[in-house]
Amino acid sequence: TFVKKVSRIGRYFWCIYFSEINDSDGKPGSSQQTLKGTSRWTASLENLLEDPEGVKRFREFLKKEFSEENVLFWLACEEFKKTQDKKQMQEKAKEIYMTFLSSKASCQVNVEGQSRLNETMLEEPHPLMFQKLQDQIFNLMKYDSYSRFLKSDIFLKHKRAEEQEENSSEAQSVAKRASRIYNT
């Protein structure tokens, strides 16, 4: 029916919309793009997911592995937890369910216990209703995708670019100090 088609199209666009919102977070030239950035990423997946540039690079990697939906689901759950208005929470819960968890989801994630969360539970949402599923996806990323990401061309190229930027900045600083010494 028309309603089902619109609903499916809406979920698809929501997935793309959510994806674009998180793409815009990584601002070029930010302090996150220093050597400390990639060093922090290697320390833990948590650190990587706290850094907008890290999320952007990790998503780029997951997209190539055909598993970008995992990080999108994790991010959607993080946003959901911040929602305080009950009506908005209901709407977001339905969006998350229809986009990532239902059998007709446009960006379906593969989680155990997916069937335990049903549409009737969406009527009385609470901030932690997706927590167990989010934890499953986090662990899947942590023990599967994350280690491969740290060895990937995407990560290594970004790390080299940071190192070159750092070395260039250091060389300029040395030149400025030398200039001050010899010009005084």
TrEMBL record:
<dbReference type="GO" id="GO:0016604">
    <property type="term" value="C:nuclear body"/>
</dbReference>
<dbReference type="GO" id="GO:0001965">
    <property type="term" value="F:G-protein alpha-subunit binding"/>
</dbReference>
<feature type="region of interest" description="Disordered">
    <location>
        <begin position="161"/>
        <end position="184"/>
    </location>
</feature>
<dbReference type="GO" id="GO:0007213">
    <property type="term" value="P:G protein-coupled acetylcholine receptor signaling pathway"/>
</dbReference>
<dbReference type="InterPro" id="IPR016137">
    <property type="entry name" value="RGS"/>
</dbReference>
<dbReference type="Pfam" id="PF00615">
    <property type="entry name" value="RGS"/>
</dbReference>
<dbReference type="InterPro" id="IPR044926">
    <property type="entry name" value="RGS_subdomain_2"/>
</dbReference>
<dbReference type="InterPro" id="IPR036305">
    <property type="entry name" value="RGS_sf"/>
</dbReference>
<feature type="domain" description="RGS">
    <location>
        <begin position="44"/>
        <end position="157"/>
    </location>
</feature>
<dbReference type="GO" id="GO:0045202">
    <property type="term" value="C:synapse"/>
</dbReference>
<dbReference type="InterPro" id="IPR037879">
    <property type="entry name" value="RGS10_RGS"/>
</dbReference>
<dbReference type="InterPro" id="IPR024066">
    <property type="entry name" value="RGS_subdom1/3"/>
</dbReference>
<dbReference type="GO" id="GO:0005096">
    <property type="term" value="F:GTPase activator activity"/>
</dbReference>
<protein>
    <submittedName>
        <fullName>Regulator of G protein signaling 10</fullName>
    </submittedName>
</protein>
<dbReference type="GO" id="GO:0008277">
    <property type="term" value="P:regulation of G protein-coupled receptor signaling pathway"/>
</dbReference>
<keyword id="KW-0343">GTPase activation</keyword>
<dbReference type="GO" id="GO:0005829">
    <property type="term" value="C:cytosol"/>
</dbReference>
<dbReference type="InterPro" id="IPR046995">
    <property type="entry name" value="RGS10/12/14-like"/>
</dbReference>
<dbReference type="GO" id="GO:0005886">
    <property type="term" value="C:plasma membrane"/>
</dbReference>
